[in-house]
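Re: the multi-chain job from yesterday

Posting the exact lines I submitted so nobody has to dig through the queue logs.
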Amino acid sequence: MLESTNQRITSVGIDIGTTTTQLVISQLTIENTASGTLVPRVEITDKEVIHRSQIYFTPLLDRDLINAAAVSQIVESEYQAAGLTPEMIDTGAVIITGETAKKENAKAIIDALAGFAGDFVVATAGANLEAIYAGKGSGAAQYSAQRHQVTVNIDVGGGTSNYAVFHEGKAVDSSCINVGGHLIEFDRQGDRITYISEPAKIALESTGQRLQAGERVTLPQLRPIVKAMAECVVDVLKTSTHVGLTKELLMTPPLQLAQSIRKVMISGGVADYVYALNGPTTMAEVTAFGDFGPLLGWELRVSLEKAGFVLEKPNETVRATVIGTGTQSVNLSGSTIHLQENTLPLRNVMVISPFISTIPETPQKIAEVVKTQMLRLQVDHSEGVVAIAMRGPRTMSFADISILAQGLLLGLEDYLSTDKPLIIVIEADCGKVLGQCISASANRSLEMVCIDQLEVENCDYIDIGKPLMGGRVVPVVLKTLVFNR
Amino acid sequence: MAVANNELEKVIIQSVMEELAKKGLLSQKGKDHVMSAAMMDTPIVPNTESKEMVTFPPQEEMQISNPFNADAVKAMKKLTPARIGIGRAGTRPKTMSLLRFLADHAVAQDAVFLDVSEEFLQRMNLMSVQSAAASKDEFLQRPDLGRRLSVEAVKTVSEKCEKNVQVQILIVDGLSSSAIEANIPDLLPALMQGLKSSGIKVGAPFFVKNGRVWIQDHVASIVNSDLIISLIGERPGLGTAESLSAYMIYRPNENTVEADRTVISNIHKGGIPPAEAGAHLTDVIKQILAAKASGVKLNQQK
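And the result, structure tokens for all chains:
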């Protein structure tokens, strides 16, 4: 019955973006913070970044394909620099972002990193998640909770700008627009265009300019198009109905703006130029990195200030996403849960939420809903393990929890007959008693993971780690794999 | 002077009543009733025919006028049931917060002075016995009496309870009957199910009226169980009157001290939900049985 009062886990975050690739390793301390006479409450009490990698240019095979082998070399050498071996990594996430978030890239990277990136690290992508990690890494989430003000973080990278709106520390809205500092490429410190990406061509068309790869440009020629892009970024903060260029460049539904925004933080590679004292005055300054990032940053600041937004300085700029990924990707389940398993850790468990609003009244009706969902899944594809997610039982009464348990068992009869583990993720604090009820209703012993106090509404897949703190909690990574859905 | 005071009193009563009526918290009829009593200088006789209920605005409503940052107050209010963000009228509380305070105090007093209803005990199928304290007053004035069973109760327990079980469950009103009625219907079945699934032998749970924590030692001496657990109403506060604690002890005897008990407190819908607490208590009981110790002795073994 040995129960330590705290435990440390090592988490890795890897961000593979359009332009740069980075890695951070952090150490999370988890502790039971409840006093002796209360039910335990295990929380992450400290997050310390113990290693920051260099910022690498993302190794590419061609314009769209990532050189996964080179990425794995980067990871390997950074582990060495940090003095860690893959076995010492407990958890974490790889996030593939922006333009590079294509399916073939994700697959290649999962394969390339599977061998040595730790037992638990997996590829994750998705504009929403990237935006949220960036906002957590930059400090916008914390700022919104400390100052009690709605704060938006815009992570402006090479290919995309990702918005995450935070209210009291929680992400409430997110969006993504195809504006970034690397959409037009130049000779370094020169004025000759070497490449114009599709979204930049759209922007050029809308400003009526004709620029082509190979041409030389002056600052006054370049400025209008960069300004137009910057204004698109700011438009998204002003209204939720869009026309013209903004509409064309939006990659996801726009921000809902349910709460009005005044405070803005910018992170990402372009951010340092947003907060610079002066804007670039020569083409050589603009194209210092072979793109127009410095100019975009400056124009963004001008547009934001003109529109009356207040700019706040982030804690992290270019490293915000990777720090967010490394320190914020791990969630802990509630501290009273039901585990009866030998299968953890589990990776890429598909999450299904069968109940749209409230849970039906009888076990039969609950079973019907679950069965319908499971059938749909079979038609689609998957023979894999699934997690059934829900808000809570109809009420928190023991009777309703029992009914839910019976309904779930009945609805999952076929699934369980194939000896797959039963995985339940419930938001209300009743995971332990629900698991106990399921166990009592089943007439045989089940492999079961019944965890609570996790919101998984917006995610597609979860990873569930090995139990920590003597089986009190499990670490969970929530993932959205589909980009631009 | 007396007359002047009287007049002033009337004016105050009138303006309070009007304020309440304006906020829709008091019907015209209710207001007239109170006013006429005030005007005639007769003590108010409660209008027992009226079933009128006063409805308070939701507790999370922010009462500060012209706050600098309303979101901040709302966020803080979410973190605590304490009376913050209630504003003020001069140096005093606003009418609404004062009334809420009085109402919560009344709820707390009811929790202590009311009995757990017969109907509830029947519905839960609980045998009922009483401590040596014959009335609520005696219970409150004489803590020692609440710590042992009445002569009659000793007889009932020795005759009716199963002996030498692993676990005996007591439900004790303690200082909050409301906590019993609010939590036991969800806690007890969850706990019984958990113990049964774990193959633990449990005696039939029963109820003790006017009981305190230590009464478990007396019961254990009669039923000779390995572990005895009391689910007892906590002293009510102004935040909640429905909080329940579980006190567990392994084989108490005459040398038993407070540190020998393991306690899980704060069981109510705003703390740990009662059904989840039942499942958690099963784990704690298993630990105590395995360690053959409770309280500090159990923690030292961990």
